[in-house]
Amino acid sequence: MMLQVKNITKRFGGLQALSNVSFDLPEGQILGLIGPNGAGKTTLFNVINGVYTPDEGQVIFRGKNVTGKKPYHLAHLGMARTHQIVRPLNELSVRENVMAGSCFGRENRILREAYEIAEEVINFVGLETRIDQLAGSLNVAQKKRLEMARALAARPYLLLLDEVLAGLNPSEIFQMVETIRKIREQEITIIMIEHVMHAVMNVSDRIFVLDYGSQIAEGTPSEIANDQKVIEAYLGDPKLAQKLMDHLD
Amino acid sequence: MTLLEVRNLESGYGEVQILWGVSLKIEEGNLTSLVGGNGVGKTTLLRTVMGLIRPKSGSVFFMDKDVSTLSAHSKAELGMVLVPEGRQLFTDMSVTENLEMGATPKRARAHYKKNIERVYEMFPRLKERHSQKAGTLSGGEQQMLAVARGIMSEPVILMIDELSLGLAPFLVIQLFESLKLLKQVGITVLLVEQNVHLALAISDFGYVLSQGRIELEGPSRDIANNQHVRTAYLGL
Hints:
The complex is a heterodimer. Chain A has helices at residues 41-48, 71-77, 94-103, 111-125, 140-153, 170-185, 197-203, 221-225, 228-235, 238-248, and strands at residues 3-12, 15-25, 30-34, 56-61, 64-65, 79-81, 158-162, 189-193, 206-211, 214-219.
C-alpha cells in the first residue's frame, strides 16, 4: 500500500477541519479528492505531507508511520506536492527552480546531477523552451507546469497535486490531464484535489469526497456521480426547496 | 422586454481567464437564477456585469443601452444593484445607517422615506433592530439587511450573490419568501445561489454555469428535471 490515512482528525481552535478521515491508496493509482469549498481538502494534504500534525490518527506512507514528520523529511522519503497557489522562486530560472526540487528530494542529488535531472523533467512537462527564463516571467499555465516539474524532480513515489487545473483554459486543461496520465505511466501514485470535475472524474481510478471535514463517499467516478450524498453536497438539500414551495402555497 | 443582456462576456483576474463567452438575457420582472459549482465563475460574472471587473471582451446592455464600460457607481445610478457575497455590511453602523448607505443613487435619495418604509414592512425584524449595530445582528438578519440595503438603492435589477450561504434552513425559507415580495413590487432579480433546488424552485428562468461557460439554460421548471444539471456539477 502506498498510503494509509487512518482516522485523521484535525482541529483549528473550535473548528474541526477534519473528522476521522480514513482511506487506503494502493500503488500506481490516481485518487481524486473532491468536495465543496471549505470541505478540508487542502488541510488533508497538509496533514499527509507534514505541514500540520493531526490531533488524532496516523499517516502511514509505504508501510512506515510518518505522522508528525516534517515536509522536508517526507520529501526525502518520496512524497512531493504542488501548491494551489503556485510558489515558484521567482528570481531563479526555471531550471534552477527544478534543481531545487531534485536537491531536496528523495535522491538528494548534488548540483551537477540535479542539473541533468532538471533538464529531463522540464522536457517531460513541456517547458523546455523556457528553461533559462526567470520563473517570475512565466504565465499561469507555465507556472503550474513548473510547480509540477519541481515536484517530479524530487523523484517521488507519491505526488500530491493541489488544483493544478485551476485557472487554465480548456486546451491547457487537456494538455495537463495528458501530463498527469504520463506521470501515472511512470508508476507514480497520485492524489489530486480538483474542482474541474469532468477532468478529475475522467482521470481518477477512485474518488474520495469530503464535505465539512468528513468523508461522505468513496468509489469509482461513476459510483460517485450517482451517490445521493455527493449530489446533495454539490447541488444542495432538495428538502429545503420542497419546504419553500409548501410555504409559498 | 429584455432588461439586461450579456453578450459573449470574457473576463477574469490578470492573466487568469474565468469566463469564456458567457451570454445571458434577463427579462423584465423575472426572477432569474444562476447556479453552478465552486469556482465556475458566478461571482466573477456578477462583478463583471456590475463593472467591478473590466471585461476582456464582450458587452453588457442594460435597458438597451451599452453599459459595458460604465463604472459600478454609474450603473447603480441607472438601477443596477449588487448585493455582494458575504454581505459586506458596515458592521459598526446601525441598521438604519446601513440602509441610508444604500440610498446613494439620486432617485433613491429622493424616495428615501418611501423606500425605508417598504423595507421595514418587508423585514419587520430589521425595524425592531433599527438602532442596533449591524455587526451584532444574527447571520440571517445580516443577510436581510444586505438585501434591504440593496432595495434602498431603488434597483431596477437586483443581483444577489449567494442568498442562502451559511444560514439555518428556517432563515433560508424566510429570505426566499422575501424574493417573492421583490417580484410583487416589480424588481427584476438575478439570483446566484448554491442550492440548485431552491434557486430553480423560486425562479422563472435558470442558467447553469460550468467552467466559465453557460452549460444549460431554460425555464427553471425544465432545468430542475434535467439530468445535465448533475453532469454540469459532477462531470459525469
